[in-house]
Amino acid sequence: MQNERTVWLVAAAVIAAASLAALTFAQAPAGSAIQFPAGYRNWTHVKSMVIHDQSHPLFNAFGGIHHVYVNERGMQALNRENPRYPDGSIFVFDLLEARLEGGAYVEGNRKVLAVMVKDSRKYAATGGWGFEAFAGGDPTQRVVKDAATECFQCHDSQQASDYVFSKWRP
Fold this sequence. Notes:
- This protein starts with a helix and ends in a 15-residue tail after the last helix.
- It has helices at 2-24, 59-62, 72-78, 147-155, and strands spanning 44-51, 64-70, 90-101, 104-118, 129-135.
- It has a single domain (25-161), classed as CATH 3.50.70.20.
- By secondary structure, the protein is α+β, with helices and mostly antiparallel strands.
């Protein structure tokens, strides 16, 4: 009876873990390192900003409305002065076109959805972070070819904050 109960408890734990994973990530192509984060808009909203002027050095790549989200695991470290994010922390950078309508900037089409996942062993070469971006927010349209040069090269400047640009604003 005890062995049968143990088997059922293990089976329930496996099913619960699989269900949790399904809620956290949408399906990604086999072998992909970073999966598309389903439900990220229900995570903690960290900040928003707009790059709207062509004189900004990042306008060509990142012009538009930025929204940044963090999962619960990452939120544990975000509000610390010198954060060290635990493995399993995830940040999402949601970049949308900025359109001027009636004197207000409004969200246009999604340009890209970028994801940072902390796994200090798997991504040791890039500060413990894995990077992926999905063109137009489409889970099938991966755009990162070389995370070290396309993503981490800029994030390396943020070593003091564990390679994360976003800061918590209480």
